[in-house]
Design brief:
Layout lengths: L4 H5 L19 E6 L13 H6 L5 E4 H6 L7 E5 L5 E10 L6 E5 L16 E2 L25 E6 L1
Parallel strand pairs: 1-5, 2-4
Antiparallel strand pairs: 1-7, 3-4, 3-7, 4-6
Length: 156
């Protein structure tokens, strides 16, 4: 498949050889994000009924990483992108159900749009840390997924 079709005619290898992901720098996490059944993308976080059900996202951190950082349930953290810019402040979910290198947040929070008065500055914006992400487009498939972006935490 990789040697036939449009990709081959364009000189693009459709199935790139595997390369291991870059490990996070010491003390950093690989930011990963996902969805929740309550909200649709970032479009519903200002809806009063849905915001009542989930008023902000939380940062999921592995139990051992939380312990090493001196973080306990009930703590709040500021999530900083690779340049040290704050992506927002949230509570923690400490769990063994996440990879120790990862930090997970639900997408769609942390808006800085004044028109979203209910959700204004609530939670962490995962998109802030994706600076330069549009330049990481996969030429063969056109996708922007599976990017490598790292964040650090600061106890509030």
């Amino acid at each position: 498949l990789a040697s036939t079709g449009y990709g081959a005619k364009a000189g693009l290898n459709m199935l790139q050889p595997y390369t291991a992901p870059t490990p996070p720098p010491p003390g950093a996490f690989r930011i990963t994000f996902g969805r929740a059944a309550v909200h649709t993308q970032g479009h519903t976080v200002n809806n009063p009924l849905l915001l009542e059900q989930m008023p902000e996202n939380t940062a999921w951190i592995h139990t051992e990483r939380a312990r090493a950082a001196g973080l306990v349930p009930g703590d709040r953290v500021r999530v900083l992108d690779a340049t040290g810019v704050s992506m927002g402040e949230v509570g923690l979910k400490i769990t063994d159900l996440i990879h120790p290198e990862a930090l997970f947040v639900v997408h769609g929070f942390g808006h800085k749009l004044p028109c979203e008065s209910r959700a204004f500055h609530k939670g962490v914006s995962d998109s802030i840390c994706l600076r330069g992400g549009l330049a990481m487009e996969d030429e063969a498939g056109g996708g922007l997924s599976l990017q490598e972006h790292f964040v650090t935490l600061e106890k509030v």
